[in-house]
Amino acid sequence: MTTLTIEKITPNIGAVVTGVDFSKPLVDAQQHEIEQALLTHQVLFFRQQAITPKQQADFARQFGSLHIHPIFPQADNQPEIVLLDNHKTDLRDNAIWHTDVTFSETPPLGSILAAKQVPSFGGDTLWSSSYAAYDNLSPAFRAFLAGLTATHNIIQSFPQERFGNTPEGFAQWQQAQVDNPPVVHPVIRTHPVTGKKLIFVNEGFTTKINELSDSESKAVLNFLFQHISKPEFTVRWHWQNDDIAFWDNRATQHYATHDYGDTVHRVMHRATINGDKPFYHSI
């Protein structure tokens, strides 16, 4: 029995979902519908969800265990909730296309982002379908990328000059490097549930395609970074307070625009659901 209403936004990615309350546990039918909608639409949007950090963590935990970020600050008394507050953390340089936490051996399954305080205009977030980007490569280029691997490094998006510029911050930044050394993932990933293939390199954390020379790697990565940001692969969301976005981190990239200046206050809470080790299957 259908309990939710799901309205598709664009041909390739995005849907608005109504009929669920994030402050309450899901019934089995609702959880199944959300999981299936996430696989189909890759990012889901929910309006008017005024929840606490604990409620957000409890909701996210219904889909898996939660990641604790090694650098970003946390919401009060809720370490699983990342606090993205532009008055506490300089987020301007985070305005790049990225997939969350691919510096991990097991990047997240998904992320749930709650808008707590947003500008009246500006501050939109865009998501891109890594499926659509892959499908729109030529067969010859898909064959070239098949089986290649790439290195992902936490320092790419968390450099010392931004996150290690105080004694306390430097110690945390150093420990984050120790706990998260560079990792290798396939350039083309097979989704563990849908079986579809998708591009799995991102500007936020990918530093090199390992089987290519430095110049070749740079050229290919730059092409893929530009390719995945094509408007026809994307959806753009204008936030309202208490909106929630839930995305499949395995199959998307996203970009948080920073066009609202430093005086405007923007606060978001993110729960990140642990995933598994990426793989590539040729079949």
User: How many DSSP E strands?
Assistant: 16
Structural class determined from secondary elements? alpha+beta
Radius of gyration over all CA atoms, rounded: 18 Å
| Number of distinct helices | 7
CATH architecture of the largest domain: 4-Layer Sandwich
Domain TauD/TfdA-like: 6-272
GO molecular function: metal ion binding; taurine dioxygenase activity
Family: Belongs to the TfdA dioxygenase family.
EC number: 1.14.11.17
Structural notes for this entry:
GO terms for molecular function: metal ion binding; taurine dioxygenase activity. Keywords: Dioxygenase, Iron, Metal-binding, Oxidoreductase. With 283 residues, the chain is α+β, with helices and mostly antiparallel strands. The protein has 2 domains: 5-129 and 233-273, Double-stranded beta-helix (4-Layer Sandwich); 132-228, Clavaminate synthase-like (Double-stranded beta-helix, 4-Layer Sandwich). It has helices at 28-41, 53-61, 130-135, 139-145, 160-163, 167-179, 214-228; strands spanning 5-8, 15-18, 43-46, 74-75, 78-85, 110-117, 125-129, 149-152, 183-186, 188-190, 197-199, 206-209, 234-237, 244-248, 252-256, 267-273. Strands 1-2-3-14-6-16-5-4 form an 8-stranded mixed beta sheet, covered by helices on one side. Strand 4 and strand 5 form a beta hairpin. The protein is globular. The mean pLDDT is 95.
